[in-house]
Amino acid sequence: MVQLRALLFSALSAPVALAALNEPCYGSGGVAGVCVTTAACSASGGTTISGACPADASDVKCCSKTSCANGASGNCRWTSDCAGTTVSNQCPGPAQMKCCSSSATGFGGYSAPAVPAVGACKAVAVSGANAVVAAWPGRVRQIYCTRDCACPGTSDHCCGKAIDFMCSDAGGVPTSSGRQIAEWIMNNRASLNLKYVIWGQRIWSPTVDSVMAWTSWRSMEDRGDITQNHWDHVHASFN
C-alpha cells in the first residue's frame, strides 16, 4: 500500500512555492513536460516554456520534446501515459520520461478500483469516490480514504473525509492524467460537497478561489517527491 505522508493543509493560505526539478509539467499545448534547467533541456533537444513549473528559478523551466526516434509518432512522455512502446535515453528529465511510439494519450486503462464502504471512511467521501470513478472509467487505479492517525490530525484522511485517486501505474510514478480529473472535481464542487482539491503541486478551494483552469490554481511548496507533490494522485477533501 502506498504510504501517503501527512499533508499539512495550512497550504490553503498559499505558501511560497519552489520549482520541483525532474517532476512533471505541461508544455505548450498541454503536452507532457518535465521541470529541468534550460541547459539540460537544450542538450536533450527539447523546448522550454516559462511559468509552467511553480515559482521557476530563472534557469528551471518546463521542457517538452514532441518528436523522438520511436516510429513515426515518437514523442517524449511519462511512461505511465504511453499507450505504445518506449525507448530510453532520448528525452529530457528522469528515466521515467521516455520516447513513446504512440500519439494516443495512454491515460488509464485500469480496472475499476474498490471503493471503501461507509464507516471509517465517511459517506461524503465514499459518495465522492463513486462519482469520480463513474465519471472517469478506467482512469483511477486505486482509492485511499483513511489513514492511521487520530481525527482531526493534520489531514482530512484522519477523519475519513478525503480521497486519494491514484491515477498512474504505481505509487510514486508520475503521470499527466490527473489534471482532467482535478478540474472535473472543481467543476462539480457543489454536488460533491468539496472542501478542496489538489493536483500537481496546486490547490483549489471553493471558499477561496473562483473557477479557473488548473494552471491558475494556487501553487504549493515543493514537498520533495512525486506523491507528496501530487503527481501520481488527485487528492479531494470533502466537508
From TrEMBL:
<keyword id="KW-0732">Signal</keyword>
<dbReference type="Pfam" id="PF26571">
    <property type="entry name" value="VldE"/>
</dbReference>
<protein>
    <recommendedName>
        <fullName>ARB-07466-like C-terminal domain-containing protein</fullName>
    </recommendedName>
</protein>
<feature type="domain" description="ARB-07466-like C-terminal">
    <location>
        <begin position="119"/>
        <end position="231"/>
    </location>
</feature>
<feature type="signal peptide">
    <location>
        <begin position="1"/>
        <end position="19"/>
    </location>
</feature>
<dbReference type="InterPro" id="IPR009045">
    <property type="entry name" value="Zn_M74/Hedgehog-like"/>
</dbReference>
<dbReference type="InterPro" id="IPR058593">
    <property type="entry name" value="ARB_07466-like_C"/>
</dbReference>
